[in-house]
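User: Predict the structure for this protein chain, please.
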Amino acid sequence: LHGMILAPDGQKMSKSKGNGVMPGDVFEKYGADALRLWYYLDTRPATPSPIRYEKLQGNRNFINKVWNASRFVMMQLEDFSDDDIKNLDKIVQDNVESSGKSSDKWILATNKLAQEVTNFIDKYRFNLAVENAREFFWHEFCDKWIEETKTLVQNEPDKKLEYLGKLIATLVIQMKLLHPFAPFVTEKVWQSLKKIGLLS
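Assistant: Here is the predicted structure, written as structure tokens:
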């Protein structure tokens, strides 16, 4: 899947040079998901790849973005009754299950992303699968859709369940796509949604 992993100085890791990088130290500073993302994004078949701490930092920032954006979405449900949650869960499930047939622009875009990521995985082009999923989450879901949902809910409060259901459905699909590459944060988001009463 990849060539030799080199030290940050571009040399082969060795005890005598003292340039080895311990995975446990990386986990503690950046998180296991950040290291996994680096592994998929920045290593190439048959090509030596030095560890780049700035890339690990960028990956950690992305993992934080996934968690914070997901938490923000879930915070919108804090005043929901049990009946609201049940109705919302049905809307989420309906959107996820009909993603291949939906005419909604958000669901269509997320379904297209799922097809692209799946195709890249099937071709073992993991770096492109991760890059597409990451860029989509950051720039479409966070920068556009969350902000658009805020406006829609404010202007049409009677449709709050519908708009949040669609937003959460796209979040669920993206967590599935990111899970092979960042399993810890995506599992945490998934279990948090289930704790609220969704994904039943």
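The chain has a mean pLDDT of 93.
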